[in-house]
Sequence to fold (586 residues):
Amino acid sequence: MAENIDENAPTVIADNVDIVYRVNGTGAGKGSATAALNRIMRRKQTEKASGVRKVHAVKKVSFVAYKGEAIGLIGTNGSGKSTLLKAVAGLLPVESGAIYTDGQPSLLGVNAALMGDLTGERNVYLGGLAMGMSREQIKERYQEIVDFSGINEKGDFITLPMRTYSSGMGARLRFSIAAAKDHDVLLIDEALATGDRSFQKRSEQRIRELRKHAGTVFLVSHNNKSIRDTCDRVLWLERGELRMDGPTEDVLKEYEAFTGDKTTTKPKAKPKPKVAV
Amino acid sequence: MSQVLHTPPPTDAAPPAPPAGDLAALAARHGLSVSGARPTLPEYIRQLWARRHFITAFSTAKLTAQYSQAKLGQIWQVMNPLLNAAVYFLIFGVLLGTKKGVPDYVPFLVTGVFIWTFTQSSILAGTRAISGNLGLVRALHFPRAALPISFCLQQLQQLLFSMCALVVILLCFGVPVAASWVLAVPALVLQFVFNAGVSMVMARLGAKTPDIAQLMPFVLRTWMYVSGVMWSIEHLASKHNDWPSWVVPVLQANPAAIYIDLMRFALIDSFHSSQLPAHVWLIATGWALLAGVGGFIYFWKAEETYGRG
Fold:
């Protein structure tokens, strides 16, 4: 709800943010040993000739996010959504401008900390510890996490190594672990697209709960429906520029008109057809 | 297709954002901090301490995951060092006959190999600690020093398994249990601090220049051969009377040789303190402090750059 936002509590402030990627080894398009040698020999050259290319991913973006907001980030592929999210999390440097945050924003995702060779149970602990929870906190929430993931609905899977899980099961457990912690600022990158319909419903519910715990949620998704269901404000990025910032309905209407316009030249922009539930 | 739509007028239903220049002031007023800035050293140490459970859990998990697909499972933890020692014994003890003049050659050799392996694998793991875990570094927030330290801890746990095998070997070869075995504990602690320090240095170098990982095996092998892992530096020197007088003290003062000889002194009764360089504990502590403190600060200085670009 945009009305009851506490004006006094901004959680994320982006001030004229520019983000530039530098990609190594694009030289003259050659990845051969001689090309690499050449690069080293002729150090003092323009960035272009020395094989470094710049990609200007986010251009002059400013916004203020407040406590209790759920903000959707939309835009076509490659428009800079995920990049902006990583910068908010402090995992990518900004070229100019600054991002200020209240507390530590965290990307929803513990995948990298988990190990397929370990059981789901041990991964719950490992993931929790990686996010900075204490052992006691994890112990307290353990049952909740397992129940939420629904891993044990079809038998005792939590004591099996994670590599034996189906991709859907793995994704559910990962979301459950990541969502177990109350984050000051939670950043979600298309996490809702995984899992079956009933799990998606539950994750949306959980995101609403996380919001109630006074955090701010950012959600990147191509699924306009899940944006509608969870967000009350939307930022629309296009080619790295902030094109629109406003209430979900207003922005989505414009966005749908924009993408609808594009689908005539693109083969099917909509994701896979929905199978009857 | 690339028809550019005019940007729709900004809607003002959302809280009106103050003009760009005021955003920094707004952030300051509410005590917001710049995202991704490097914490101060005391704050960094505090954060690292807060993640100690993650460090131990991560290293144990890595250790367990290592053999989880093998049929013999965790038995490999002990089998691996034993087989390693057997190979070295075959080559250096039987084929090359290096053992001439060294009493208790097998315990001497095996101790050397195990202690050296601890340092070697810690440094190798440290080199890849950041560059090999970019996924983790790019997804989660934690003091990055947790990674190299965690990998060293994994190697320490591995070494403790090896030490169990070593005790069996020592007893089999008639080395008596002695009070001096207790000295193995401080020696290991010092070596661990040294390893962790060097790993952090290598982790920073490896994060910036991944090519270093290709080079390290050669550096480490050279280091191994000059550290008297398979032979006694003292014995070698007595055979080469033409060596300048500074060679032996320098070889003996290198950290790997120091930690290996300390462990031999602690465990093997025929290895006398006269074979140790003077002030050996002082040198061992010095190396540990130099590498540990220096490495930690060096690593922290680049904290905000890991996993970027």
About this structure: Residues 146-172 of chain B form the longest helix (27 residues).
